[in-house]
Amino acid sequence: MTAMPRADRRSRAPYLFVAPAVLLFLAFLAIPICYAIYLSVRGLRLTGGGVFGTREEVFVGLDNYVRTLTDPEFFAGFGRLALYGLISVPLTLGLALLFALLLDHAGTRAKRFSRTAIFIPYAVPGVTASLLWGFMYLPSTSPFSYLTQELGLGEIPFLGPGGIYPSLANIAVWGSVGFNMIIIFTSLRGIPAELYHAARIDGASEWQIAWRIKIPLVAPALVLTGLFALIGTLQVYGEPTTLKPMTTEISQSWVPLMNIYRNAFTRDDLPLASAASVLLAAGTLLISVVLLKVTQKRAFGGMQ
Amino acid sequence: MSAAGHLLPHRRGRILPTLVLLIGSLYCLVPVAWVLVASTKSSGELFSTFTFAPGTGLLDNLRDLFSYGDGLYLRWTANSALYAVAGSAFSTLISTLAGYAMAKYEFRGRNILFYAILAGVLVPGMTLAIPQYLIMSEIDLVGGYWSVLLPGLISPFGIYLARVYAMSSVPDATIEAARIDGASEYRIFGSIGLPMMIPGMVTIFLLQFVGTWNNFLLPYIMLSDENKFPITVGLYTLLNKGSSQPALYGIAIVGAAVSVLPLIALLLFLQRFWRLDLLSGGLKG
What we know:
The structure holds two protein chains of two kinds. By secondary structure, chain A is mainly alpha-helical. Chain A has a domain at about 70-255: MetI-like (MetI-like fold, Orthogonal Bundle). Chain A is built from 13 helices and two strands. Chain A has a two-stranded antiparallel ribbon with strand order 1-2. Chain B is mainly α. Chain B has a single domain (about 65-285), classed as MetI-like fold. Helices cover about 75% and strands about 0% of the residues of chain B. The longest helix of chain B has about 35 residues, at about 70-105. Chain B is globular and about 75 Å long. The two termini of chain B are about 30 Å apart. Chains A and B meet through helix 1, helix 3, helix 4, helix 5 and helix 7 of A and helix 1, helix 4, helix 5, helix 6 and helix 7 of B.
């Protein structure tokens, strides 16, 4: 008799524990996505015809998707994003891995200082980082252009047509290299030291140990950091928006999210913005899943 | 650490790695040093003197900053603190509860929930900002504190990490023993699960805190009243207006310098409480 209510309580407990998360998940992730999908098949159309026609919201099928996918500016935004990501993602991961390996290297000095210094930009918001770097790019305040001008080489076109991509990528690298370094470093620390001892006895150099033992063993951490770098690239918004007042190179629709923002709030075309949001979210999910499948690393334990 | 030291007799094995790391450190510190120096310059000096030469206008700049818009800057700081501290604290608690339940109980819908959370990790939050705005405007919350706080409470990544941490740090045997002693499930969570998960919770809190503090798009979309802006949106508006009123550039720079310092201090102080091995530890499954 007494066992029954307890078993009942026990079976109810997990539902109560997950209830707040489930409710919030529904309210701020699931329902917005469904609402965006609903809106994306709606559109304002003139009905009645002539000067007496009124604008009415009606079902328009996949019109907004067709408009998004045939909008050259939306694709150009992805092209710019790709160029930016091609610079920022490999550099972030490469530098993070290099710094992590050096921190793990026995002979390195000033480890504590370097680790902290490289981690510091993580505390600086992307908008603030863009503001700092923006002034360091601006010819009148740039210390780098000051030097090149003193040397008679003229100013560096950080914010010019070609310079804008590396300049923006640099802000991303600066802001995220430290965090990724720490993730890879903690992963390196988890490798049993015996593995190195055995390799050293066999006459392996430090380079060989790094290349043959350390890097393969931290591959799951690299996949995870790569995935987050990729997701981060697809949602770039704050950095180019902050730099926009400083350069003519950045248009109102420079990256996909800026394009979506403009359609939603400047042009008041919420259905079109919704369709583009849905495509961007679905595309990101697809790319992530493909990346995880291709690398075959169980980056998210328990995905099996 | 020193055990391997004797295996590295070459000085080159010490100097080169140290040098590369120090160059990396310099790269990371230069912008911070720049903004600290620039914040000491008067608006005339900002565009005329060598950028790393200290100026004479620090006190004037600080006065301008704190008096701008009747103390708007302090309001922005307070708002950022509210969004980040309150939002992250509740978010951490919600994630911990859900992660603990998903790790320690078998219940119907657990797998669906897990895949939903995983999809939530992979769908970038920013692509949801517009749909979230639409929902918020349907229920008339746009423009208020809640419109920024509420979407920040759900963190799929936080739930995911809490689940990983609960699996590895709360032994099933301990829970079972407490059950035999007659403790209720809620009591078991409160006096066994929760205390054991605190190191993981600190990490989840800090990740969420930095994420919220750094967030720009969500508050930028949701808010229109300057008095409710967090510091990121506030600094952006200063910079944006600065292209027509150069005096605001100076305020934006001092504002950036003043906002960066406490956060760096906080990060340095909290560094040892971070358990980022939680992130890489979760990878092995």
